[in-house]
Design brief:
Blueprint lengths: L11 E2 H8 L1 E13 L3 E4 L6 E2 L3 E2 L4 H11 L7 E6 L2 E6 L1 H9 L4 E11 L6 H14 L9 H22 L5 H22 L2 H4 L5 H19 L5 H12 L14 H12 L7
Parallel strand pairs: 1-3, 3-7, 6-8
Antiparallel strand pairs: 2-8, 4-5, 6-7
Helix pairs in contact: 2-3, 4-5, 5-6, 6-8, 8-9
Length: 274
């Protein structure tokens, strides 16, 4: 397979594009092949990539994926955000780097398309997001409710404390934030997408849905007397709040917003005040 001509185009950051275009409305487009040359950016990892979507520090995983692609093995679809005719990688930066290096034309992807929101953001929301980004160095976590950024910051601070205990040294907040984003937030968002929760909350961002599940997790953990964990919280949220069992037909999703407020009046009373 011939190698592709190296591109000098810098990798775009989805966070910057999202903020510029005020992206929040989104539609799940399913899994299908997308043009590799239209993959231009990354969600939260643009700084780790060199122009042309090359890895700054190729690792063992990169070479393992490269060998698999050269042998023609079928790998899991990447996950991308689509904006116009461009794509931004949420999961699969290594696979995209290899695909571009090998000159592949198409790659299978799970696609979530974003559109500009018609709603105007409040000054409070913009200020909270800017504060969060300055403290953590994280971009592209676009919540639509200011309080969510306070929650995310608290999660990261707790994560930093656990890292310090494990490593036996002081951990800077930005280092902890990056680890939290990669090890906690990104897998959680992937699970949220896989459960189809974006369809259930069409007016909310993935960050908002993550925050709702974490609030539900806190409530259930308090009730049970132990930390139930994210996976159990996600499943409970899907079944109790969304009212959706695995395999339930689409029609039963209708009326979710009306049920949501009622069910959560006990669980998350702040919803009534938003």
């Amino acid at each position: 397979m011939p190698l592709a001509k190296k591109s000098s185009q810098p990798v775009k950051a989805f966070g910057a594009i999202s903020k510029k275009l005020n992206l929040s409305s989104r539609v799940y487009r399913g899994v299908h092949p997308i043009p590799v040359d239209r993959i231009v950016g990354s969600v939260g990892r643009a700084a780790d990539l060199l122009p042309g979507f090359r890895l700054r520090n190729p690792d063992v995983r990169y070479y393992r994926i490269r060998r698999a692609m050269e042998r023609g093995e079928i790998l899991p679809p990447i996950i991308v955000y689509k904006v116009g005719d461009e794509y931004y990688v949420l999961d699969g930066n290594h696979r995209v780097a290899v695909a571009k290096e090998l000159g592949m034309e198409f790659i299978d992807a799970e696609v979530i398309e974003f559109f500009p929101s018609e709603r105007r953001e409040s000054k409070t929301l913009r200020a909270k997001r800017a504060e969060f980004e300055n403290l953590t160095g994280l971009k592209g976590i676009d919540a639509s409710e200011p309080r969510h950024y306070d929650s995310f910051l608290n999660y990261i601070k707790d994560y930093a404390q656990r890292m310090e205990l494990f490593l036996g040294r002081k951990v800077p907040l930005k280092e902890a934030a990056l680890n939290w984003f990669l090890c906690v937030y990104t897998p959680a968002v992937q699970a949220i997408v896989e459960k189809g929760l974006e369809e259930a909350f069409p007016e909310k961002s993935l960050a908002d849905i993550f925050a709702y599940i974490m609030d539900y997790k806190w409530y259930k953990s308090q009730k049970e007397g132990y930390d139930i964990g994210f996976d159990a919280a996600l499943q409970g949220f899907v079944e109790e709040i969304v009212g959706k069992k695995e395999g339930v037909e689409e029609e039963k999703k209708k009326g979710l917003v009306q049920r949501f407020g009622g069910i959560l009046e006990e669980v998350l009373p702040w919803l009534k005040r938003e």
